[in-house]
Amino acid sequence: MIEVPPKSDLRWQQFIKNGENCTFSSLATKMMYKRCQMLLKLNPDKPEKFNEAVAIAHEYFTINKAIAESDLKIALAA
Amino acid sequence: MKKTLFNLDEAKTVISSGKKFMVAGPEELLSQLPKGDWIGGTIPYFMGQDGGVKSKDLIQITELDPKIKNFAIKEYSAEELKNIPKDYFERGMSFIIIPAFSDPHLAYAKDAVTFDGIFKNPILGWVSGFDLDDPQGKAAVFNGKSGKLIFDKAVVLHCELDSSFAANVDIINPFVSDREGITIEFPESTWSPSKCLINGEEANFAEFLQKINHNEQLPIMTDLGDSDINVCIMKIDSENKKVDLYNPVIAGFTYYLARPLNDYAEDFRSQAPSHEADWSCNCVLNYLYSGLEGKKLNQLQGPVTFGEIAYLLLNQTCVYYDVKEVEALQKAS
């Protein structure tokens, strides 16, 4: 099973920036990413929201890695 | 197919078995059920073992998966909804029922996407309703544990699953957005938008829909990567230059028009799973627009609703879930 990298891993930032074109299999992953997008779009002047989005994605995959492994692979390759 | 629709006497017997249930039916019947490990919501429309049916004499009871090893029933006001994820079991899922047009309905629609931890566990459920032919109709939910009838709170059944099992939630949405077409954005989250941006230009939403002669059966949609969620139109109010919606638009999202369907019923049925899901619910708009009365939607059974919940509030969709072994879900993904 693929390991969930720490929040500091740069691939999380790439995922938040580039995940829009990813094709996820899990409804929850799609909605989680939508939340991250909304957070950034509604707070364009708050750079700290980017780290919050990374934290949301990291937490989601940490808890759901067993059932969202294929989405995690896609996210980390974004 | 398993039987899910029962008359009152049968329903009392089923509930008394002591298992855990999701229940749907008219208020007059639900209020006569014995207390137990169930939550319920008002509705007279069902997808049952013999297909779609409207009835004031039937109760729909779905037994929850026996692999649920622990549970808790809680009620949440609009202000308390954000605490739902804090009450999740470490591994499990939660079922929610919210009365239509109540404060929690509005709050969940607008704010669920921002609740901390909302995506940690699957949360699914429905918005209870009433007979559309009854102008005095009022939606309610029931806490089966206390026997309480509730109009102003959501009721949630939190379930704990063994670590080798997980719930998989999915939706059926026959609509596809026209992403090459017009973009629509809204300056505020609201159920009745007037101001909007059409392709970045300020416009009135009601006037825009009238100008393009929009078919009100077609939702507007916001994208979720390769799929979409619907926002459904209740009424274009030309007098007040606003559009009343069945679920709110959210500021910050980009919306698109839905492409027309070739055949509403067939497009919907072709996406439905062929297996009998553990539980499902389907939007009353689908029931009406695709003529589901007397017809089956493959093997799916469940209440016909005023809104569906799969993490977020959805509309004009069908939500279903299955509890599966984690290993099987890993293989499937």
Could you walk me through the main structural features you see in this protein, from its secondary elements to its overall organization?
The complex is a heterodimer of chains A (78) and B (333). Chain A is mostly helical and 78 residues long. Chain A has helices spanning 10-18, 27-42, 48-64, 69-76. The model of chain A has no long low-confidence stretch (mean pLDDT 90). Chain B has 2 domains: 5-172 and 265-332, no CATH class; 184-257, no CATH class. Chain B is 15% helix and 38% strand. Classes of the chains: A mainly alpha (78), B mainly beta (333). The interface between A and B is medium-sized, with 30 and 29 residues.
Question: Keywords, please?
Answer:
heterodimer; A: 78 residues; mainly alpha; 0% strand; globular; B: 333 residues; mainly beta; 6-stranded mixed sheet; 7 helices; 38% strand
Q: How many strands appear in the DSSP assignment of chain A?
A: 0
- With helices defined by DSSP (H or I, 4 residues minimum), what is the helix count of chain B? 7
Number of helices of chain A: 4
Which regions of chain A have little confidence, pLDDT < 50, spanning 5+ residues? none
| SSE run of chain A | HHHH
Query: Which structural category do the helix and sheet elements of chain A fall into?
Result: mainly alpha
**Strand order across the biggest sheet of chain B?**
1-6-2-3-10-11
Helicity level of chain A: 55-70%
Distance between the termini of chain B: 27 Å
Largest sheet of chain A: none
Q: If interface size is counted as residues with C-beta under 8 Å from the partner's C-beta, which chains form the largest one?
A: A-B, 30 and 29 residues
Total domains of chain B = 2
Which structural class do you get from the secondary structure elements of chain B? mainly beta
Global outline of chain B: globular
General shape of chain A: globular
Helix-strand blueprint:
The complex is a heterodimer of chains A (78) and B (333).
Chain A: H1 10-18, H2 27-42, H3 48-64, H4 69-76
Helix pairs in contact in A: 1-3, 2-3
Chain B: E1 5-6, H1 8-15, E2 20-25, H2 27-30, E3 37-42, E4 45-48, E5 51-54, E6 59-63, E7 68-76, E8 92-99, H3 103-111, E9 123-128, E10 141-143, E11 148-150, E12 154-161, E13 165-172, E14 184-185, E15 195-198, E16 201-204, H4 205-211, E17 220-224, E18 227-231, E19 233-237, E20 242-245, E21 254-257, H5 264-271, E22 279-283, H6 284-289, E23 302-305, E24 308-310, E25 312-314, E26 318-325, H7 326-332
Parallel strand pairs in B: 2-3, 8-9, 22-23
Antiparallel strand pairs in B: 1-6, 2-6, 3-10, 4-5, 4-23, 7-12, 8-12, 9-24, 10-11, 13-26, 14-15, 14-21, 15-16, 17-18, 17-21, 19-20, 22-26, 24-25
